[in-house]
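Please predict the structure of the following assembly.
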Amino acid sequence: MRLLLVEDTADLAEAVAIRLGRSGIACDTAGSVAEAQAHLAVQAYDVILLDIDLPDGTGTGLLRKLRAGGLRTPVLMLTALFSVDDRVTALNLGADDYLVKPFDQRELEARIRALYRREQSQKGEEIRLGVLALDPAAQTVTLDGAALQMTRREMTLLELLMRNPGRVMSKERLFEGLYSFDDADVGLNAVELYIARLRKKLSGSGVRIETQRGLGYRLDADG
Amino acid sequence: MRLLLVEDTADLAEAVAIRLGRSGIACDTAGSVAEAQAHLAVQAYDVILLDIDLPDGTGTGLLRKLRAGGLRTPVLMLTALFSVDDRVTALNLGADDYLVKPFDQRELEARIRALYRREQSQKGEEIRLGVLALDPAAQTVTLDGAALQMTRREMTLLELLMRNPGRVMSKERLFEGLYSFDDADVGLNAVELYIARLRKKLSGSGVRIETQRGLGYRLDADG
DNA sequence: CAGCCTGTGACAGGTTAATGACAGGTTCAA
DNA sequence: TTGAACCTGTCATTAACCTGTCACAGGCTG
């Protein structure tokens, strides 16, 4: 899951990001409306955490703009003071949930997962390609019924590829799906590495990852 | 199993929660419709116990809303006075069962387990995996006929795993089934601990718990 | 043929999980 | 009420292994 945290209190933002990161949620942070928009222009997110008080505007203002622009990503509002009016406004503008500071980290995480679950539950279950099947809910990959052992990163990469079979995925695109901005120091070579590891595990599966030199990779079924 | 108890009589709620907790059912309580909705927005439950008389509305009203919203979780209605009309209304609204106060705690628990079992669509009482069998009603585990001694938490964890054999269950997911909000201070490490204890008891049983580093745990039968 | 892109083995570092020891709490019986 | 047995969860230590970098080989492109 990839999440954008818009919050100008650096301490709080960092604490939340670390905590969520530990739970396997890739978390990018923005300290202002402008920064948030910059991130949103470049990166797709599964959930957005939005503080109301921001140095260069309000979270509600940003939310209105985003919804007006057709963005449907679930938004969870955060704020120190939440009057009934604020709350009604926020929900009317298209916020999906809200949380009053100070909040319990565990509750925050639970709500994030609830939003994510709701979003994901609309998506289908198993992804198949030939005899290869990936079940995102069960986090399992089977090859003709036999289980394949995958690590977290391998699973994420394979899911990305299987959701776009036959289509060329650029190395940068795959990288974005695998890493958050905090992992900015990770080299693009890491993608190549995981492609290699996946190929090894998929060898003889009737599914192969083709290299499109200079363009990216494409997942194909034999035949 | 994770359960939501919606009941405004604090004494009763606490008594039931403690009793159920002792049986390995993680029980959150809500004293009002609003509180119940807050919990439901955040946490998935296996069963809901719903009192009819609540300070800010009625249980039937809440039930109607929940069903209208597409929630299919089994609901057991509780009430002091249950006229035939109430009963018919409740069942028509999508309640799965009802119980008239004062009720026997054992009967309550039996009905909860019945609803849960039905939800899990387990035909027989028993869940089997290889030579390992778990009887949720009797709360017993047998290995090739020989009884295995399990503690409350071990039993709950094993049941969670046995109901999802071959699926990777994240540590967080297991934690949710094992602990209620009241146990918020318990560390995730506790799950690891019980996995270790289960493994010890299951050694040589032909059933093993595989670790998927970074993803969770998976119960598998040898072979 | 030169230059760049990609593949891959090996390795170091860091994170995650396993586990033994321990303390507090609960249960149960006397 | 006391004590014993046992269940629970924390902590700290150790082990496992996932991750990503590096380096170099090989191949594609122009």
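Chain A has two domains: 2-121, 127-221. Residues 62 and 121 of chain A are 27 Å apart (CA to CA).
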